[in-house]
Structures
1.
Amino acid sequence: MKQICLSITLLLLFFTAGFTQQKSLKTPWADQVDQSNPLPEYPRPQLVRPDWQNLNGKWNYAILPKGGNPSEFDGEILVPFAVESLISGVQKKVGEENELWYEREFDLDLTRSKRRILLHFGAVDWEAEFWVNGKSVGSHKGGFDSFSFDITEFLQKGSKQSIRVRVWDPSDAGPQPRGKQVKKPRGIWYTPVTGIWQTVWLESVPESYLSSIYSVTDWENSSQIFYPEIHSSSEDLDLEISLLDKGTVISTSRGKANSPIKIQLSDPKPWSPDQPFLYDVKVRVLNGKKLVDEANSYFAFRDVKMAKDDTGHQRIFLNGKALFQYGPLDQGWWPDGLYTAPTEEALVFDIEKTKEMGFNMIRKHVKVEPARWYYHTDRLGMLVWQDMPSGDMGNRWEVRPGIIREGVNKERTAESESIFKTEWTEIMQEFKFFPSIVVWVPFNEAWGQFKTSEIVDLTRKLDPSRLINSASGGNFEMNGATVVGDILDLHNYPDPVMPDPGIFGKHSIMVLGEYGGLGLPLEGHTWQDKDNWGYQSFQSAEELKARYEGFIEDLLKYIPKGLAAAIYTQTTDVEVETNGLITYDRKVIKLPVTELKKLHQKLYFTR
């Protein structure tokens, strides 16, 4: 097997105590943010109700030493943008020795008669406690999963209400999942993200209501199986699911609440990157003939599995056919919003450009996006490989398949293991709804990698319908002669490589999980004026294009040998990394989109 070549540049960056402060670089959407109503879109497209209220906007904030309690506030912050971000209006770091406090008053506009009022947070990084009208309603740990509280009993008479939030985030000083965030940004490590970074909203629901739903395709039997969850259910409640095609009901099925409901499709329309067809769904909760609750959703009829092609190589099969998957490493960072895209148009921009470039897949790298991002990948037809955000790092990276050595798997504390498993479970339970996700990636490059077989088993139990890339570019744990998980994934910079097909091709899907990283800093579009970098840097787009074309020719040689997917680093520049296909401010696409698409079309095959 070819050995991974970790660039000297990257090694230096790991151990250099460089430091960057956030700059004033802006995307075209920064000045379009509505200060009174930022990100007004409905935040949960997988389960839509009409009676909701957005709480984004100006909140009061304070940064205090840990354990304090604000008697007054420092000023205003624009929620849901992290306190370190430019768009937040604050742009201050917090650190593990301090806590960030929020407070706001609002008028409750929702229907309250015989209804419950739920307070939802899309994501808050990391540990948070919440008060409504001065009374504690609960707490939450986890920077990437959504959560909610029933605040009905905490509401005051009349419309005037108040919310207070306390947040503590140790960044890389703690063991929690935090992705690329570090206290001292440098190289491939970026600015911390503290506090509320996704939409805060209220929802009015009945006493018994549909709290979640997802579905799984039964490809062989042309059917879709729905798994609804009803809160405060009783035996008297039924669930009715209607499927719609362009507004016309094509099938309806009824079953008991909190039980799987299978719906047969007479002429199913498969979802794929080429034809991303989505069925609309209407869900009704019924007590006899009485309507208790209703919501709108959607699904895609699509199937993903590992199987051998006609040459004996393991491939990723989509809807019964082997499909080579090729996409960029996508980190989802913004120079003005950090974790949060300035607007919905900005959120969609990267996906649309990736699609126009001829990629059919995106690897979402050590970050989880808002639900609306995945809705757009469903809608536009982009396959997604979803990483678990990394944390609690420090173990060795030693890619030697078949040899597991002491120190290769991280020895985590019981608390650290529990934090990881809890958040990974929450992420998977929430996002397995989205059909565009076809691969789960628990670990990246031994970044906190621990008990690999156990985590793969947990992942398989939570979602047996998708493939598992146990450790993208990480330490491969073996079960006899087979790699744990479905995929053997190498990283190599800058040139493409692949695993040895003679050793691994019969049992594992062989993948190049990261490569490339070709840098082209463009004056006026960088995070800082100098000391930007790529794994290999160029002075012109022409030089960059020639090198990239050579990479595609290399991939074409590996595909017949069994290479099933490849991921190029990366979609955009991020902070001092200038190895994106698009500049960090999204104002320049470095290589012509049409020429990239023409190049990439050479890679795809279906058998």
2.
Amino acid sequence: MKKYFRSICLAAPVVAGLAFVSFRQDDRLFEIARNLDIYATLFKELNAYYVDEINPNQLIKTSIDNMLRTLDPYTVYYAEDDIEDYMTMTTGKYNGIGAMVNSSDGKHTVMMVYEDTPAQKAGLQLGDEIMKINGVDLSAREDFDTGKLLKGQAQTSVTLTIKRYGIAKPLEITLNRDIVKVTNVPYYGMISDEVGYIDLKDFTATASREVRNAFQELKGKGMKSVVLDLRDNPGGLLNMAIEISNIFIAKGEEVVSTKGKVTEWNKTYTAYNPALDIDIPVVVLTNNRSASAAEIVSGVIQDYDRGVLIGQRTYGKGLVQTTRDLSFNTKMKITTAKYYIPSGRCIQAIDYSHRNEDGSVGKIPDSLMTAFKTRNGRPVFDGGGILPDIVTEKENYSPLASALGRNRLFFDYAVKYHFEHPTIKPAKEFHLTDNEYNTFVKWLSDKEYDYTTQVERDLNDLEASAKKEKSIDVIDDQLKALRSKLSHSKDNDLQIGKAEIRQILESEIIKHYYLEKGMREASFTEDKEVKEALTLLKDKNRYNEILKGKKN
């Protein structure tokens, strides 16, 4: 999740408390000076007498990071070497080639190539293994960042020596670095004759313009209602959240207010432009990774009864952060306030330190939540993200599918398939035949991957409980018999889970031909939130009744 760092961003779940509130200002300044002197003395002694050589930059950064971590997860220090990454996360731009590279097990593999970038123009492909950069053999380098070697000033060249599947001899590709723009809206289009779809994945400096342009273009194509997809959107710039909300609500309407320790920074933000459309039916898609600015937009839509939210409860990140400049070209992002959406609620998770394994907010006791009302009088609650109007179950992959993905077997087979099939049908039409699926199953036969089914996990828990309670001897034979019967067969499971495995594999193969846009186009027929949105938008009575609070 990578994208939380912004010049003014809405940070993650935290309730920051103040220790030593009884200190007078003079006492506090004395304590700061005293402890800084102790720290400087300690560091000098370490540097002089520690048995091994120490890296002062690394050690200081570690100590700062650990100190800030005791406050909240999103008060962050940026060393000078990290400033370029910080600027990328704020502006969505960087100087480089436009490829995502994964470095693991000594290999540096191209996992994604972005459209209209030097990497795409030079013919770099997914699955290419980068062996050398400007003649430097990467296998001989351990302590380095591949991404930083690929970045550089615009119009400078970089030569990559790559190993490509199916080609014995390494290839050399020379690229001219350029300004790479990471788009906030990777896809938009019509998903039915009258329903437009806008996939908003970030809130960097151009997010509002991208959404507005997409919205206007889709209206020109006959759009009568719109689906705004905020799933997996970690948030970003506050002003972008305000401007995007303003697309759907009238000028002068309150969008968000902030309240913090520095009272002169407290402010109420209103929509300051004429809306593009205050009547078009809107559906907003959310999940547990919709955070920060994404929660402001979805919360505004819900609080004004401007549209219907579909999906899962959002992340619950109701904190404002401000970036402060430090000495020697370093920066710190500090949590400075909480934000409140128009109904008056703060969606900050009450307890950010205890979340579910997937990062979602755990169950919140009713006694800890306060009720608020939307414009139409519908009850909404604070204490942990935005609860959608129509809640759908989060999609979970089977243990088998997770194991194949974790071991990168979908990706590796797609590389092979791409080499063997120069072209495929358009993304919306592509499907694997039964014979092609069986070829994949056969290919897996000598690959290493393993997984534990839910039933096997339950048996393990039962065995552990029996051992703890000293009753294992009583049920040991039955447990062994059950394990024997339930022991999974990979070939059998690949047939039982064929629909899921084939869908994931098709999506991965499509990515190798049509990149991100192709994957999104192909997903609509299987995307349950999109299908729920299309069903709802066809039923205008149900849509209106939800907004009136009559039924779900």
3.
Amino acid sequence: MNRSRLFVGIVVFVLLAASQTEAADWGAKKGPLATPWTEKVTPTNTWSEYPRPQMKRPDWQNLNGLWQYCVQAASDPEPDVWKGEILVPFCIESALSGVMQRVEPTEALWYRRNFTVPDGWRQQRVLLHFGAVDWSAEIWFNGTYAGGHRGGYDPFTIDVTELLAEDSNALVVKVVDPTDRGYQARGKQLLKPNGIWYTPVTGIWQTVWIESVPRTHIKSIQVTPDLDTSSVLVSVNASEEADVRVTVFDGETQVAEADGTTGKPMRISIKDAKRWSPTSPHLYDLTIELLRDGNMIDSVETYAGVRKIEMKPDAAGVNRLWLNGEVLFQFGPLDQGWWPDGLYTAPCDEALKFDVQAIKKLGFNMVRKHVKVEPQRWYYWCDVLGLLVWQDLPNGDALAKWNRNVDERAPGIRRSAVSAEHLREELSQLVVDFGNHPSIVVWVPFNEAWGQSETAEHVALIRRLDPTRPVNSASGGNFQGVGDILDMHSYPNPILPRRDKHQAAVCGEYGGLGLPVKDHTWVDEGNWGYRSFDSKEALQTAYLEKIDMLRGMIKEGLAAAIYTQITDVEIEVNGMFTYDRQILKFDEATVHDANTSLYDVK
């Protein structure tokens, strides 16, 4: 079954029920920079793709588009008068929201919109989904409190079946976000942006949608490849116990089928399974059905890549990273995932795909997603196009002291009980929610001691949840002797960390070579890079010098390296592309050839 045909059936796709007058009145604000897609965004086309490509159903309704909004004191009740319209799913601080307004930690951002559901849905369950809301959300449905969620990066769902109205439904959302005045995971957001810290993001920043499901339905799935046995393991979590059938397709050809029950892992053997890799990102399509007395009562469609990632010694006893039984030097850029028009949210799916394709065209086989978690569709493009992902978990709370052997129990380093609980909850949810993507090959819970605490405990937690991937416990330190990777940062030149008998040596950040391009910078003056250049020629020469340095390090044991960075971000101008994605500062063919030459170093 071809992935383009995964979504079979009548798709109930309803955009925001805003009038033509309302749409005509809306307009994006003029920000410092625009991308090639900025002007293409409208209230009726914003993020129209199915948001969860690894668990598709036919009956869904998109709630993106124009909503009413209001910003007021956090202690105030729901507003009687709404200030205006905001384009969801763009955060209120972004130009594409149509508002471009800051929200203070003492304030709340309120949203409201009305919508109807098809009559046929009333005989089933109706689920309300939020891709991500930063940070703390409370939801009312037709005047009744429906639920809440804390966590700016993980998706969440509320069953609103019992709250449905006969005609129009009113959805109200309240969001508060303390940014750097709170303990929560926030990545690089700062109330006063500067240097490597960026504009805060508040509110809904991923797709909001509803879907119709049977009373007995699939709630989640876990798909784990097992290359050694040429199989995949599938676990199905459902609202009630039921039989399960999994069918595997390679294109239009059925290649495997297995039966089982919910709550119990099923092994589906695929004879001579084709391996997923950056050079051959082969994906199998899966149909998962719930059965009762042999009759299908629910089904979802997903996909799987059969691959194996591990850290182990090579023939010389040097720890390396292996993919599918072969040593592979992993090389890619740091990717912050920010956009000048949408901030946390790309202007469209095409823009997300562009970033992944651009990294591949430059000859990289990997990317480090830096202290941010993306929408599911970004990982989908990494899966489809074949890009390895090192996934950082967003950091928060206070910065730990910079000391490789810091005592994590010391005052000011150990998190408060509530902070630690929320970190564990969000980290756990992110590993579970995104663990099906074959492109993700390394988890990175901490970066440079940002919010780092109880490192050994968090590494153990990740390994319990996902024993199939290496863990890079602290990219750049603090080093606690746990995890599979010893990762040091060095600017501008790459560095080879000391060899370790238990960990692979990685340079998790280097480079930072800056070049501001006139008319393509966030600000006209005060731009910043780790090292600055005044021409593309000088910039590229310096980049290629660093590539030459890596060759010798690879021979000595370097397992991976990450160059800072793929795009400029706000006042940082050390990107290979400008922030607006309009200008590549390098010759693509030259960089591609230099980068790919690293994979042949022995």
4.
Amino acid sequence: MAIVVNMPRLSDTMEEGTVATWLKKVGDKVEEGDILAEIETDKATMEFESFNEGTLLHIGVQEGETTKVDELLAIIGEEGEDISALLSGGGSAPAKQEAPAAPTEVKEEATEAVALPEGVIVVTMPRLSDTMEEGTVATWLKKVGDEVSEGDILAEIETDKATMEFESFQSGTLLHIGLQEGESAKVDSLLAIIGPAGTDVSGVAANFTTAAPAAKEEEAPKAEVKTEAPKAAPAPTPVAEKPAKRAATPVTENGRVFVSPLAKKIAEEKGINLTKIQGTGENGRIVKYDVENYEPAQGAAAVGKFVPAGQEDFEDVPNSQMRKAIAKALTNSKFSAPHYYLSVEFDMENAMAFRTQFNTIPDTKISFNDMVVKACALALKQHPQVNSQWFADKMRLNNHVHIGVAVAVPDGLVVPVVKFANEQTLPQIGAAVKELAGKARNKKLTPAEMEGSTFTVSNLGMFGIDTFTSIINQPNSAILSVGNIVEKPVVKNGQIVVGHTMKLSLACDHRTIDGATGAQFLQTLKGYIENPVTMLV
């Protein structure tokens, strides 16, 4: 039976979450304990693991998208299982993967007998899976007296399903540890106390009843967990056998390697020995960055062959206002608009012949870029959705066509605009582009000449670039990247002949342009570019 996985509540104040990265895709097999996704909460980006196994049948929230806690995140079930009823809201109520509960900060039972000192927070054993009844502290990453910041990993806790990181949602000093490594306790039992440095919390700890490993319940463990001094490891009990569940965790001669689940997963995929990596995380913990940037040592003999010499040198160049504006606009576009890219290759034989003939007209000279701008303008009139703009409450389909032409200048990039490009002739477009580009390089462009574009063309063909992709120039919904014309073997009428082709890539905002719409636009554009005489009709 399919399992509905909802957006988990990963912090005590979390109301909604954003999917930063999916680590599984639809059709992938999912094992219990696998990391499904990285989810950005109001406090941190955290790994979210599966408490079920099966096949990932549906993803309800794409990367970069946000949804409320308990809204549909994904569906896991048997391969090929029909989930249409779940997606349409019909059918019987599906089973759910419950979100890990946020840590309980203060228990009412504790406050009834002892008033908490100001700023003191009681951290209890969290419920980290839907079936978890008790947890075992596998590793403490903080010790009594350490400063704790919000988001720091306090401990790794072994549940009935996996060993998971448990992070602090508070800041302060770790005043008391209620469970030592290897000890177990019921959910909501005392785990730790955080508060201002030097605060006496002995009364709070004494008042808070804590469960102990099942085999030692008759030994009245309550007295043991009240002390903050480190205790000797408990005698072997059935609980002590639990580390076998964590056998996959790498170990060294000195014990366990501290590594995040995501870093461990990446290391396994790349075949990297974690014991060779120096962690840069908290307390030397290996994190994703360490694994992705790990380079195997070359060995003493290899190192001895070459000793680099020289002096590091650099120059700090203050960012110009133009560079700052470009950085802000492109960053906003890249991370707010869900880009996707469509690439095509056009036959340029007819276009080359057409340009040669057209430029025989006295006082006339057009470029391939002028032809692309004109072709885009005509195609946009037939596909207004590509000539659109996205707003929070609406999508605007523009009936006019203003094409921005990206121009490189010493400080960066500017985009002057050819207004009503579809109504202009090829020579008029050529003259307009030439004039605007000259003004751009001489810093003479007016704000009015750079405003109002509905589509953008970026051409790096003159620099010998065959293919590339661009970031959308918002509020446009698309930008066309134009490459170089290349002489190459092509197949025509079943024969290999010498031909000339040009590659183009269309970057689209998926909020306004569906894949099929973008593809249809490129088909229309192909008709104009490969048969340019049609642009004169």
